[in-house]
Write a structure and sequence with these properties.
Layout (H helix, E strand, L loop, with lengths): L8 H22 L8 H18 L3 H13 L4 H18 L10 E2 L1 H4 L7 H9 L5 E7 L4 E7 L11 E2 H4 L3 H16 L10
Antiparallel strand pairs: 1-4, 2-3
């Protein structure tokens, strides 16, 4: 991308707020002490990081980054960086009935209560029965490798409850998601300065 092209004033204001919030949430989520806090506190922060990321994906240059990931990265990485994370955001935003990650569930009837074939329904229909994806990521703070799986539901069309924790577990799954989101967002950062 040409460094002389700058976002307009409104975009710059939005990006500053969104990026600062994202990085604050990221730093907190990656700390071991975060996982000792109560489940409701964790859930509010996790909810926020997915919401901020999904809003940032509306920024045109980030849409291009996702397209590049589709072409250059391992299969399904762009689907995870965009589709899965937006799916999670949409569940958290449109079904705000839960107090912890492990409580969150949906099913075909709940999702389609108002209107059929919306984003969450389309995602679950498209990914139902897809092969489990195994990932690993390096935690530079702990100097250790973390392993996790992303499991797509197999019984969505049958109407069974689909728990978010069964797709992506809370601790390792959210840390992985945060790392992947940060990698996408970092592509648009020229400089990071300390807050006053």
């Amino acid at each position: 991308m040409d460094n002389s092209i700058k976002p307009n004033k409104a975009e710059e204001m939005f990006l500053n707020l969104a990026y600062n919030r994202f990085y604050d949430l990221y730093e907190e989520i990656m700390e071991d002490t975060f996982w000792n806090k109560d489940s409701y506190y964790r859930f509010t922060k996790i909810n926020s990081i997915f919401i901020v990321y999904a809003e940032l994906l509306n920024y045109e240059p980030l849409k291009h980054v996702i397209k590049i990931i589709e072409l250059k990265r391992p299969p399904m990485e762009s689907n995870i960086a965009k589709d899965l994370f937006k799916f999670i955001r949409n569940i958290l935003a449109h079904f705000p009935f839960f107090d912890s990650w492990n409580e969150v569930y949906i099913n075909k009837e709940i999702i389609n209560w108002y209107k059929k074939s919306m984003t969450v329904d389309k995602f679950l229909t498209a990914y139902e029965g897809k092969t489990e994806i195994k990932y690993r990521f390096w935690n530079s703070r702990k100097k250790s490798m973390t392993y996790l799986s992303i499991k797509f539901p197999t019984s969505y069309t049958a109407g069974e409850n689909i728990y978010l924790k069964d797709i992506l577990n809370e601790k390792e799954g959210v840390q992985f998601a945060s790392i992947l989101m940060k990698r996408v967002l970092d592509t648009q950062v020229i400089e990071i300065s300390d807050k006053d």
